[in-house]
Here is the input.
Amino acid sequence: MAETVLEIRDLRKSFGALKATDGVSLDLVRGEIHALIGPNGAGKSTLIHQIAGSLTPDSGTIRFLGRDVAGLDMAARARLGLARSFQTSSLAREFSALRNVMLAVQARQGSSLRFLRPVMQDASLTEPAMAMLARVGLAERAHVPAAELSHGECRQLEIAIALALGPRAFLLDEPMAGMGPEGSRRLTAFLDALRQEAPILLVEHDMDAVFALADRISVLVYGRVIATGKVDEIRNDPEVRRAYLGESA
Amino acid sequence: MRRAVTREAATNTTLALLLLAAPLAASAMGEPFYVTLATRIAVLALAAVGLNIALGLGGLVSFGHAAFFGLGGYAAGILATHAFNAEPLFLGIAGTTSMPAIWLVAMVVCGLVALPIGAVSLRTSGVYFIMITLAFAQMIYYFAISWPAYGGEDGLSIYLRNSFPWVNTAAPLPFFLVCYGLLLLGLLVFRALRDSRFGAALQAARQNEVRLAAVGIAPFDIRLTAFVISAMMTGVAGALFADLNHFVSPSMLSWHMSGELIVLIILGGKGRLFGPVAGAMLYVLLEHVLGGITERWQFFLGLILLGVVLFARGGLIGLVAGRQSHG
Ligand SMILES: Nc1ncnc2c1ncn2[C@@H]1O[C@H](COP(=O)(O)OP(=O)(O)O)[C@@H](O)[C@H]1O
Ligand SMILES: [Mg+2]
Here is the structure.
């Protein structure tokens, strides 16, 4: 049995009367891509927020690397090795692409309470950051402010930042959204290899990508996981077809 | 990008040389008043460079920095008074008239006061942060007014300007040079902070705190550190201001003063290295020139401020040197 990296048990979160997360249990094991699919408003982003620490669940547990992360804020969870990308890109927009990645490299190296050495002359920051940009194909755009990057480039930059953290798990919220077919195809190939570095919890609407990549799929509807299984099991699950795939099939 | 950087550097160098040359010339021509004016610019600029760390780099609009400016002023006034009267301060500790010692005390006091103020204020953001910093500063203001030991409402005179090794601080030009040197030092500190890892995190916290937290850096810790450093620098400027005027009073602690420091930064260009210098130059010159013509000179200051906010967000430095470059 593969090692469980992330273990979610009976998680619940309500917004008023709306049960956005309604008793979700889910695992992420080493080496896998676990896709989380479901219609808009099913609670996928809300779940990612609770794992990453930007929302507090009402009840339930989240264990990461065997440790209950309940008391940890977003920054502390990131330091433990949880790297996330946001559904709508969240970047330091005045900073260049390079400086956005350097921030992650700097965080990984330890304390940011260092006051003297200029970061742009610090090869221990610039070189790894450049390498990450090159990996996602953004090397040429390294010095462009994030505010001036295209939508697709922002998505790539988010991935580069996550990579630079050297994480133990990735939480990717619709990384392909708005990327175009060529971009999606390239990102699919990229994520395919990435699972060897760290397992990926992948929220994605692009079904071609999901079926190509996922080792397992969980289907979320109205805050509940209605099915978890291998690609073929999910494709052929009548309940899933009715509740979700039916809409697009 | 390269050109914008050098244009800003050229602008900064010009301003630095101008601020040095003007009082040298005035002194040579026997016009000490203008030396005092330049000193006022240097000291206010230093106070604003301090605030610029929190406000410009960190986006923390502190409306309470007069607290630190005033505490620095009182550090100078109180230590000098005790030294003058040869009365120990407390626990047998003597006063002092040595500027470096006073600056050290000002920094320590301001740092110690800024720590709890920041720790509370930084739990909030936006307009609440502005109001809480204002409230803390007003508390200190009223405390100073109602504490008779050091002059209360009337303030405290410094009969002899405090001393600096090998410098005749009583004369205008040498005192200016001390203030100018400290301003340059403050600017060096600002630049080092801005370009460092700490500065990267601080500026990221301003742009997008969620992004900063998502890479594992807690925005609160970074901001609190910035707030404390910022207060310490403004405190040193306060000590100089008291020495410049031979006087410290609660007005140094008032919200007008906090507002004035913010205005200097907005005028000059927030977050820009020489923004506070440009802002202080414009402010003091307006105050002098227009103030000589009309008591309502602040009306024109208001117009200029309006113009800057509407048409030149980067302030004077932004107008001359173009947009900020982040490398
Ligand atoms: N902060 C919030 N306050 C109130 N309702 C919210 C909040 N965030 C999300 N919701 C609601 O929770 C449900 C799940 O949203 P979300 O997790 O974004 O769905 P998904 O990512 O699957 O599209 C939606 O109905 C959404 O409107
Ligand atoms: Mg979503």
